[in-house]
Design a protein that fits this description.
Number of strands: 7
CATH superfamily: Vaccinia Virus protein VP39
Number of domains: 1
Order of helices and strands: HHHEHEHEHEHEHEE
Distance between the termini: 72 Å
Shape: globular
Radius of gyration: 18 Å
Helix content: 25-40%
Length: 208
């Protein structure tokens, strides 16, 4: 009879895993920022004040599908799930596999789906998951630092996928996101939240 021995992971790997467990979501978020600073945009997740103000205009009783770009470690995911109907769905899209893996492991909700992919492919992603459109799309992607052409592509695809009466919810540190939105959304409400690191600008683009 032979016995199979488990080979211990290298010391550096074990230390890395322990640090990630100790730091929790902050550690995952910081790791994601270091690896992909252009796509993450901020080293600190949004404040609860930003979350409350950003989600305030959403008509949750009419929302069947909520989509989020760049969910990070789920700063908005949990508040959205708390507000959603029991039969609604939340699809989050991120290009960072570390964030997607973390979300799939930590959010145990049948209404939640984390997709590794690009926000520019939102129409296909929504269709693949059995929906014709989204009611609301939330984005914290840093439009001002995205590669050339990606921002306009995301804005156009988002406008197409949102149903009439729905909205594109965007929080940014600059006004540049509004420029991309204005080409497709004729009514854009604006707000500002100082109790955030850094202070953040809020935009709600409504689809007529």
């Amino acid at each position: 009879m032979t016995t199979t021995q488990t080979v211990p992971a290298p010391l550096a790997t074990r230390i890395k895993r322990r640090m990630e467990r100790a730091m929790g979501p902050w550690g995952v978020f910081f790791k994601g920022f270091v690896k992909h600073p252009v796509m993450v945009g901020s080293i600190i997740p949004s404040s609860r004040f930003t979350i409350q103000k950003m989600l305030a205009p959403v008509k949750w009783d009419e929302c069947e599908l909520f989509v989020e770009y760049g969910p990070g470690v789920g700063t908005f995911c949990r508040p959205v799930l708390e507000r959603m109907r029991g039969d609604a769905c939340l699809i989050v899209i991120d290009t960072n596999p570390d964030f997607i893996d973390y979300l799939r492991k930590t959010i145990r909700d049948s209404r939640f789906t984390a997709v590794l992919g690009s926000a520019a492919d939102v129409e296909e992603i929504v269709r693949v998951h059995g929906h014709d459109h989204a009611d609301y799309v939330l984005s914290g992607l840093p439009f001002s630092t995205l590669p050339d052409g990606i921002g306009p592509e995301i804005a156009a695809a988002t406008h197409r996928v949102i149903r009439p009466g729905g909205a594109f919810l965007v929080y940014q540190f600059s006004h540049r996101a509004r420029d991309f939105m204005a080409k497709h959304f004729t009514r854009i409400d604006q707000g500002f939240e100082a109790l955030n690191v850094l202070p953040v600008r809020l935009f709600w683009g409504w689809k007529d």
